Amino acid sequence: MAMMESAAPGPASPETPSVYVARRLPDEALAILQERFQVEIWPEAATPVPRDELLAKIKGKDGVLTLVTDRVDGEFLDAAGSRLRVVANMAVGVDNIDLEACRERGVIVTNTPDVLTETTADLVWALLLAAARRVVEGHLLIQRGQWKSWHPMFMTGQDVHGKVLGIVGAGRIGSAVARRAVGFNMNILYHNRRRNLDLEAAVGATYAQFDQLLQESDFVVCMLPLTAETAGRFGAREFALMKPTAVFVNASRGAIVDEDALVNALKTGQIWAAGLDVFAREPIGSDHPLLALPNCVCLPHIGSASVETRMAMATLAARNVAAVLSGQEPLTPVVQ
Ligand code: GLV
To answer: What is the pLDDT of residue 153?
Structure first.
């Protein structure tokens, strides 16, 4: 027994790696870390750790589990120091992380792909259908006591079935969005850095140039990662190219869209409606101009927010930390 204890130092041993978890996660995920390491946790689930506190707490840590709300940059890496071996982001997107700075310092970065693909694609469809068929507007109308009668063109929206779906960014989630479109008998266009031959074979999707996709699609879904190249990709020019009946959906990152241009396009009828899960600066307040538009459905960045998927993301992030600090390969590396 004594031999076993010395062979496998518990969380209290001085050689045991130490981890900082930047948010209160479900117990099941924390247990993966607490069984093996010395773990400190920002105790709030709903509030991000203040920057000063984060920088102080990560000092000397071997691993840090971060969220999209935590910026991992040179300052963060300096504050952590040379022991840092892994930053595990509980998200598929890693735009909050300076990957190059991590690479230079030999810090492994991991994310949580795959586990959230189908859940996020479901939410894209919720936005698409809600915006096209005025679901939220209808609910609010009843709530305000404004439903007076059935009438021929009352609350008419846009059909979804049989229309053209254009997906910008046909990676994992974009492809899952496309698969669902088969049931709606849609023609699928996509635009991507590279041709996605699997998607073409699986659902008969057709590769299109960006402008062609904007001009021909009834539904334009943005699933691009946020990078220096994609920031501001959808602006006044792009909305002007879309059909006046087009519905625009964004469930990737808000900064890919010029929000002033989108407000203008929705107000002036340049496009029909939008469904947004993400915003340039989050959280947005109730006074955000997009919320004043009846043809814009806004959600608070909940693409992956099902109970099962958030549990899977939290445990995958924890398992990535555990793997690296136990000398194994990370499960889902971005930088290795
Ligand atoms: C959430 O936005 C994610 O990137 O997982």
So the answer is: 97
Query: CA-to-CA distance for 128 and 275, rounded, in angstroms?
Result: 6
Q: How far apart are CA 293 and CA 42, in angstroms?
A: 37
Pocket test of ligand 1: the residue of 127, 304, 306, 313 to mutate, having most ligand atoms within 8 Å of its CB, is: 304
Calculate the alpha carbon distances from 75 to 39, 56, 96, 312, 321 in Å: 22, 11, 13, 30, 21
Q: CB atoms < 10 A from the CB of 307, how many?
A: 9
Distance separating alpha carbons of residues 278 and 255, to the nearest angstrom = 8
Residues of the chain with pLDDT under 70: 1-12
Ligand 1 touching residue 304 (CB < 6 A): yes
* Cα–Cα distance, 45 to 310 (Å, whole number): 13
Among 85, 133, 134, 301, the active-site one is 301
pLDDT value for 10 = 55
**Phi and psi, residue 94, nearest 5°:** -125, 25
pLDDT averaged over every residue in the chain: 96
Q: How far is the CA of 113 from the centre of ligand 1 (A)?
A: 9
Q: What is the end-to-end Cα distance of the chain in Å, rounded?
A: 37
Contact 297, 274 (CB under 8 A): yes
Cα of 269 vs centre of ligand 1, distance in Å, is: 30
Q: Mind giving me the DSSP string for 73-135?
A: SHHHHHHH-TT--EEEESSS--TTB-HHHHHHTT-EEE---STTHHHHHHHHHHHHHHHHTTH
Q: How far apart are CA 236 and CA 256, in angstroms?
A: 13
Report how far residue 296's alpha carbon sits from residue 299's, in angstroms, rounded to the nearest whole number. 10
Percentage of the chain surpassing pLDDT 90?
A: 95
Residue 1: the pLDDT is: 30
Asked if 189 and 206 count as a contact pair (C-beta separation under 8 A), the reply is yes
Residue 175 tokens read as 């492809």
11 touches 36 (CB < 8 A): yes
